[in-house]
Fold each of these.
Amino acid sequence: MENLKRPIKKAVFPVAGLGTRLLPATKVMPKEMLTIVDRPLIQLAVEEACEAGIEEFIFVISEGKDILIQHFQEAPLLMETLRARGKYDQISKIDKINFSDSALKFVRQDKPLGLGHAVWCAKDLVGNEPFAVILPDDTVLSDETCLKQMMGGYHKMGGNLIASCEVPIQDTSRYGVFKMIDRKDNTFTVQDLVEKPDPSLAPSNMAIFGRYILQPEIFGFLDEHEKGTGGEIQLTDAMAKLIRHQPFYGYIFEGERLDCGSEIGFVKAQIAFALKRPDLAPDIKSYMSQKLKEV
Ligand code: G1P
């Protein structure tokens, strides 16, 4: 009998996308390098993975996105300068995002063929072990990070686990959507998945959020390279096939969901994250109340 509770040590970050919803900001700069207060989106995602016990970080990148890797590599000149100036606070900020070459892996996705294809590109680096997938645009503001919450569920149930959240029914055509049964507290069994259904056809209003824990058997289905919604190879379609063979759960996480791939989500995230910072919150609050009086 296969062991579906093996520890998760690797995470895949599909970061090859063009970020067109945030143009012109993303014309040259990868959207994952845009910052929420002082940290790029990719750093928030990697820090979340670290907190959940991930030890190997696999980036699926495209042309022009090497800067995402560089962000986590040593910067000797900068360090030297900071040391010479005695800026130890700044050094500690950089120190914690220096990863060894063995922890940081990357693979190129040469064509934008979809999320399923991006994850498939990481197949050799993941190998035959369960892994996490994090979509860095999907940010959560919570006491315990989303992936760590999911790890708690995975340790109990094993199998495959997808983060899930409620969305307005008219928005289902923007998400993967669950057909679910047996909801208990914050988990449910997934019966089926549909990528971006029209609201009239959506099996529920529970949407896939960008955190996944998957068994390596998913690659068998991604190998098929079958095109789905939007002519893209969808991760949702491969998962829908795996559901027939392995346990599959939805996990309703706690926290505020912020879609940083859209302008409004991005602005909300700035405010929400800044308000969590004790050094910034008082100023932000008084500035906001002043501004609200003006509108
Ligand atoms: C992707 C997935 C979708 C999921 C969404 C979450 O869609 O395909 O199932 O609900 O991420 O953000 P995308 O936003 O890349 O179109």
Amino acid sequence: MSVRPADLRPCAAVGLRRSDEPVTVDAGSATRWPVITKAPSRMAVRPNLTDYEATCASFTWDAARAALDGLPDGGLNIAHEAVDRHASGPRRDAEALRFVRADGSTRSLSYADLAEASSRFAAVLQGLGVGRGERVFSLLGRCPELFTGVLGTFKNGSVFCPLFSAFGPEPVSQRLRLGRGRVLLTTRALYRRKVAPVRDDLPDLAHVLLVDADGSPEPGTLDLAELLQRSVPSREIAATRPEDPALLHFTSGTTGTPKGAVHVHDAVVAHYATGLYALDLHPGDVYWCTADPGWVTGMSYGVIAPLVHGVTALVDEAEMDADRWYRLLAEHRVTVWYTAPTALRMLMRAGTERARAHDLSALRFVASVGEPLNPEVVVWGQEAWGLPVHDNWWQTETGGIMIANLVATEIRPGSMGRPLPGVEVGLVARDADGAPVIQDGVAVLVTDPDVEGELALRPGWPSMFRGHLDEEERYRRCFAGGWYLTGDLARRDADGYYWFVGRGDDVIKSSGHLIGPFEVESCLMEHPAVAEAGVIGVPDAVAGQVVKAFVLLRPGHVPSEELRLSILALARKRLGAAVAPREIAFAESLPKTKSGKILRRLLRARELGLPEGDLSTLEAGR
Ligand code: AMP
């Protein structure tokens, strides 16, 4: 039965045209949140995907690949697909990127500008002797040089690795070292604070290019603007093959150092197909992905997917602020908006009236990724701006969206949606220790509805990571019984919608950023008073989770507020605010396994008052 519930009441604000949108609600859904159904035939723009089952049945990755240009002799280069093919066609003068500075002023690059600027950057790399496969890192905010740097790196056949500019010196130097970065693109301030002090420990780092050197680079760095001016751009693009590495994204695990996920040029096929189906991009769209290109979402969907589709991508150079965001959505007539649960929760807190004060009538589609999206937020979107939020799921290793609530199909608030065309998803059964159940080399799948299993993907989609940098064994362990194991736990309902249950491991998601507890624990233990540390994520109404650390002091030290602040200060200085713990508690002991590993699962259960589960591996007396 379809009803129109009171909590999805039409928007009253001037400019919100969606009061008559074809949205109805099925009161008989599996959750307490009503299903949101839609009528594609009445939508302002015909969705790219209207018949889910038929599209899944007919879809092939080869057909998606055929929609791209390719290079001669079977080559493929992301920069050609994203920029140069538009620059040599009717879209050459179309606006590719529109940057909004903190003061609201804008600067734009057309596809032709972007082609020229990225070719210049490629020529700079050539001039510096940076070759195919060598790694170019960035430590930058969302500025034009980041975008031209990524695309120029692809054109040169080198590999780009973006770092989040809010990382502290430790994560920055560790990733530069692990990735053997040859070039770093950064600003004077970031270089001084985060790289110069450790430069001697980075023997592979041959060139640091400052985007704001203004004619007087720091010692040991180069002025990018001057190099660009002197360079002679060539129209040639390195003849990369689909399987050549293009991107390196570091992500966090439970143990050990961050993992470098290697992605190849063929990933652009998935960015194209998911931009089409999951984000419903159409020619003429003004699209805004709020993620920072320091993370995979900001790269795959803030840089590559919109450019491959030839739309205009908005880039906000400032930090998140509710009124600013609404102003940007309204003034720039954003049509498709891809954002994250933490930001949406902040907007919800700011109130419905704030949203209604702006003319968001151009907005057609809203999507979210990165952490669990509360069903309240999905439904609130409908109330605030007349559109529900479409949650989707993927991770650094998958390179692109895998599961999504789609524009023309019903939304089940709280669910991540259904697999995209070309993506095969399974739930692998887990044994009592949480290990995947494999029989005769084949994974045992959970087939009954609403039963938990480990979310798994059948390898073969183009944006799948092709390796963990220098860690073959770690990469191999991600696959079992014919599936890639994601580390997430999920359920599938009887209609094929997937519901996130939680992480199967100890990694923490805070404000959409994946944080490895080991990295934080190692840093805390550098404090002279700390003997041991255990780090977990605790729930937070806005950030999803925040990092909480339990520290055990060395003999001779006693807990005090001063000591707590001193440990916190060290963590913030070394790790940066995005990774450092929000809370630190002094512990008298930490629960450990008999083999000495900290049982973070138990720390978390005790902190949250949850059942302690199987304690058979617990060290006596803990
Ligand atoms: P990252 O590799 O940093 O993009 O983080 C990927 C992880 O974020 C996934 O493995 C999930 O644990 C979480 N995640 C991403 N999207 C969602 C979603 N829609 N719902 C719940 N968790 C998500």
Amino acid sequence: MSAALERLDAASQQALRLEAVRYGGEQIALYEFAAPDGGELAPFTAGSHVDVHLPNGVVRQYSLANNPSERSRYVLGVKCDRASRGGSRYMHESLRVGTMLQLSLPRNNFPLHEAAPHTVLIAGGIGITPIRCMVHRLEALGLPWELHYAVRHRSEAVFAEELGSDARVHLHVDEEHGGAPLDLARVAREAPTGAHAYCCGPAPMISAFETAFSFWPASMRHVEHFSAPSIVWQEGGAFSVLLARTQRKLEVPADRSILSVVREAGIDATASCEQGICGACETRVLGGQPEHRDMLLSAEERAAGKSMMICCSRSKSAELVLDL
Ligand code: FES
């Protein structure tokens, strides 16, 4: 099964209890979830995230920061975003220890390539959460790694005490360098041959990473997006979708997503971010040619055309046949 189709299996939810909230850094809290009966949780791999279904109806994706060998808890790091639309602010202001929440099973769009001879980890701000998880895993495997962790202020550095004294950790505090960002071009130049590089952080850092590492093979540089560029629906034009399980045919107008049309037709389609960054809405394609607009599928997966994110992607052909 391809990595893309494996992700389709992670739509289920589990009811977990918020066991603890800890201070992570300025405006950052660490949330620890466990099974109410103390049982084992579904396993996860380094780079995974879960969808958190909040009581206010909002669904948000957060990366798992703890050691993947732990089966008793999920630890999420959440920064309170001043522009929050009900996700991080709600978590910071309204969630109380003991609250039961629905979380999806872990899903991994940012997997670690454990056969690499060296791993370069780059984190910006709260983007440290999946990277911290990767450090746990690389340590468990005894594999070489280096971490470049950029924050604007030292007070925002999460896990600083755990990571701070390790010579492989390079903390870059922007305000202590006159506001200058981390020199990613130097990191790209100095990395050992054969290394894989991973970057998670805000959009400007992802963009700088993609520029600095553009001379690396695409298969050896990996990014995790917090948010997607805005999607212009009108560019794709209208098309039809045939739902293979019921043989119903739906028309998708230029200004609507497949997801919204399918849901309006009464189909219970799974989705979460609705921005093409989480993978929750991934759907098998049985016919037609998708026009991929997500931030997840690899070039090979796009070319294969076997699945698509129906929240954002459209169609190059007049009709798509979907496994719905
Ligand atoms: Fe997240 Fe579609 S709902 S990728």
Amino acid sequence: MEGRYLVNFNSKELPQHETEILIVGGGIAGLYTAWKAVEEGMRVTVLSKGTIEDSNSGRAQGGIAAALGKTDSPELHYKDTLLAGAGLCDINAVKILVNEGPSRVQELISMGANFDRYGDELAMTKEGAHSKRRILHAHGDATGAEIMRTLASQSEAQEALQILEQHFMIDFLVEDNICSGVLAYDENSGQFRVFRGKAVVLASGGAGQLYQYTTNPEVATGDGVAAAYRAGAEVMDMEFVQFHPTTLVLPEAPRFLISEAVRGEGALLRNSNGERFMTRYHGMAELAPRDIVSRAILSEMANTDQDYVYLDLTTLPRERIQKRFPTITATCSRFGLDITSELIPVAPAAHYMMGGIKTNYHGETSIAGLFACGESACQGVHGANRLASNSLLDGLVYGRRIVDAVKKYLKCNSIGSNIHFVCESMFDPAGNFTALKKELQQCMGDNVGPLRTIQRLSHALAFLNKNDWLIKHRCRTPQEMELRNMLEVGRLIAQAAMMRTESRGGHFRLDFPEAMSQWKKHIIIRR
Ligand code: SIN
């Protein structure tokens, strides 16, 4: 066991908590899976690293894509998803997503999710690479918050569901390739605790915090992927990181997301000379696939020697902007910008991890009893570049499928486990972890960002290898454990990016700028 776990522990000495289904992560994928499992009569505990409000899901603005429009169809949604995915989507995973998606969204509506409407009809917007208006939204640009509100209010009423906030999952308990629970740190009591489940579902979200510029919240540090990898799970497609093209660039402001739906409603991108430039890069102009728009913006930034380009909404009526994008209007206004009359300075920032723990179409990982869904999972549905607003749908569709698989799994493995673990690691050095975290974020942004080369990737890997000593480090605080996870995930991304000597979707190599047919395959890494 030595070196595999992040902290020293003797599981017998720690408080024990038993449940049937243990879910790690309180975003849309985790909460929806929990709710469906409870509906099937299971007892569920959800561990959330922060509070339920802290998730990436809660911040989703643009919306949730589903073929519900009269002139739309799952086939069209399927085609758009494959095109954006740049030849690497798993076609069966996409078929499942687009065919099962509409029922999942209808289910959210029947649970009380209040999507925007024009009269009786659901209002739908367009985003990059969609051939139809198929994106549902709520309160204009607060779709994730509305879905999370719906799921959280359903959860409150369920006795069989316990949600524990401020519980940081540290490691999976795995013996003979069977997962039987997790070791977690309860920040409320300052105690380590063992949580045992007959099945464990990982829905812990992404890793945007690996980069200095990101739309992701502080909690998005890739902990689930790192822990599953440590436990021996296979990870896939880690080189594909999505950079959202338009995040706010203002002194003092965080890299706040300016939804792609803004462009869907007619906003234009202009360089600092005032020129509209996207028409020079792609036939779909501002609504080209996200990776293409991000690279075009970077190229304009370089050509004009500026740190941003502009998003121009000023041709849209003021009332329409305020009603359709109230969160964006209010946030920009807090930083002194009136988006109805002024241009918004924007630049790309890390947004979404297409890769993750490899699963099949039922969320099963390569470790028995461990399932994964949402951003921490990868069944190949997003390929090399996720189609906008497919991620919330992914969480619902594959969360639902996990519940079916767990039911079957429990029929054959209903006993659970009493395995105990004693782990000791070797070093306990002191270090400046805050500075190291910043260095890592800078290094990832500079070298493993949207534009990569062998030199940049070598530089990143050298940095990551230099800090490899942390692997055997006995962590003492959640911040150290997080940093350890970030280094682990950073290395997975950099290694896969180094291996893939071509450009495809979110992975662009300046030294190999073309897509190569021999690279139409996935990179799978296992410890
Ligand atoms: C956005 O509103 O632009 C984000 C939607 C997404 O990431 O799918």
